[in-house]
Amino acid sequence: MRLEVFDLELVLQIAKTGSLTQAAQQAAISLQAASERLKKIEQQFDIKLFSRHSSGMQLTFAGESFLEYAQEIVQRSHSLQQHMLQFSSQQKQQLCLWCNSSAQSEYLPKILPEYLLQNPQLQIELQEAESTDIVTALTQGTAQLGLVSSFFNTEHLQTLEFAEDPLVLICPMQHPLAHNTQINLADALHFAFIGLKQYHSLQQSIERQAQQLGYGIEYRLRLPSFSAIAQVVADGVGVAILPQRAAQQLQSLYPFHYIHLQGAWANRKLLLACRHFDELPVAYQHLSEFLMEKRALLAPI
């Protein structure tokens, strides 16, 4: 067996968490694959790295010695990757991150500037698309890495939870619903809506939920952006459904009230997705690691 840095990182995660399951999740591989990798390492050196207890996995004496060298090798590997990125080409290196409209407008502008400042040789193109199209592009290999809504089927991809992205209902300040702090979709469907264009996946998911409840949505107006919708709602024309983060930011510009929507469909998440994280090009692995490290900054406002 050829020992890889990935294997050393897996051992470090097991030692850190005391759990093979958690280490496998962090490494974005199956529990079985993680178990087999650990077994092969132990067979190669004819040692036991961990002992198993009810409280979790604990390093053996040999494991502690192994861990010391593994930490140094992993640190040097990361340093080498970071250092050599700037020499990978005489031209700027371009990455393409596919993302839905919510990720592009509400989340990535908050964290990507730091990454670009840390990596002056990189250029990042944000390819905005509907979540369904991103899933297709990842599946077909057209895209390497993408941010998609958890509302859509990604079972055939590897995903990591990137951010909470719940939906809220917004209404005029003097609207009959304005006294509510939370609401079921069915209780709002008697009112006229302001919506996104028909092709937008968010609007499609809202309409699908309404159909399951036996309702159709009456649209007074369809608009291309969250900002335009917020302005029209504030003017008293109707109600609308937006991502919570967008609604919170737009409240500083337009006077409206927002109400939490109940139900699993509305409490969606943004997922970082690809076919296989450990098979991504190094630059994309580095970007995905950065995004996951910074997700704490994306907590609700």
Task: Output mean pLDDT.
Answer: 88
Task: State the secondary-structure class.
Answer: alpha/beta
- CATH-wise, what's the superfamily of the largest domain? Periplasmic binding protein-like II
Main sheet strand line-up: 4-3-5-13-6
Low-confidence stretches: none
Number of strands: 13
Helix share, percent = 40-55%
Name of the CATH class of the largest domain: Alpha Beta
The name of the CATH architecture of the largest domain is 3-Layer(aba) Sandwich
Please give the radius of gyration in angstroms: 23 Å
InterPro entries: HTH-type_LysR_regulators (IPR050950), LysR_HTH_N (IPR000847), LysR_subst-bd (IPR005119), WH-like_DNA-bd_sf (IPR036388), WH_DNA-bd_sf (IPR036390)
Family: Belongs to the LysR transcriptional regulatory family.
Keywords: DNA-binding, Transcription, Transcription regulation
GO molecular function, one term: DNA binding
Task: Give an account of the 3D structure.
The chain is an alpha/beta fold and 301 residues long. It has three domains: 5-85, Orthogonal Bundle (Arc Repressor Mutant, subunit A); 93-162 and 269-298, Periplasmic binding protein-like II (D-Maltodextrin-Binding Protein, domain 2, 3-Layer(aba) Sandwich), CATH 3.40.190.10; 167-261, Periplasmic binding protein-like II (D-Maltodextrin-Binding Protein, domain 2). It contains eleven helices and 13 strands. The protein has helices at 5-17, 20-27, 31-45, 61-85, 101-118, 131-140, 185-188, 201-212, 226-234, 244-250, 282-293, and strands spanning 50-53, 56-59, 93-99, 122-128, 145-149, 158-164, 167-172, 182-183, 193-196, 219-223, 240-243, 256-261, 269-274. It has a five-stranded mixed sheet with strand order 4-3-5-13-6, sandwiched between helices. The chain has a four-stranded mixed sheet with strand order 8-12-7-11. The mean pLDDT is 88. Belongs to the LysR transcriptional regulatory family. Residues 1-60 form the HTH lysR-type domain. One of its GO terms (molecular function) is DNA binding.
